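Section 3.1: Structural characterization of target chains.
Under the original work plan, the team committed to producing a structural model for every single-chain target entering the pipeline before any wet-lab resources were allocated. The record below documents one such target. The sequence was received from the expression subgroup and is listed exactly as submitted; it comprises 225 residues.
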Amino acid sequence: MNEVWDNRHLIWLGLKLTLQLSAVAIVASSLIGLFVGVGLFYGNRVVRSLLRLYVDVIRGLPILVVLFLIYYILPAVNIDILGVHIPTNVGRFQAAAIGLTLFGAAQVGEVVRGALASVPKGQSDAGKALGLTFWQRLFSITLPQSMPVIIPPWTNTAAELVKGTSLASLLSMSELLFATRKIVERTGDVLPFYIAAAAIYFVICFTISRLGALVAQRYRFGVAR
């Protein structure tokens, strides 16, 4: 593994970009997916129909197709609002972040919708009788009770987004897989570098999985409020 150690700087640069992209995609998709799920469950017919179309279309497409649509199609679209041109050119990082966020938000939105449906309606009605607003009932009653249902599939989605960052290499973005491939092309040593990359991806995804399991356990036993 001396070759891997000798090229650790290039691997670290790719890993750093992978971590940055993963963090942006996970945080953004979680926040957007939360409101998508709320809209799917509580929205009126028009809102539910539009969000259902978004979720079904995005979930029915491979992540790579979504990335290509953002990177190649979006810059060709002209958007003018009140005579003001809105630029749609995006860089590689922005395209990858937007594509992964759209994919992750659709997954999280469906998870949140199902979790909200699992909470007995009487819980929300009790909060309403106490004079709580919709958002107060949502964040103090409904969501806390649905967290044990949300966290396990959310953890899977977060891990999928980390692995999905490897597809950004097809946009010539120098994340971990792209950096690994460039090192392999230069050195001719295939096995040690791809084993190292696989180990790094495994450690990241395993860490997310274990943290998610711990958080879910705390909610399950009522420690988190």
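The CA atoms of residues 37 and 108 lie 7 Å apart.
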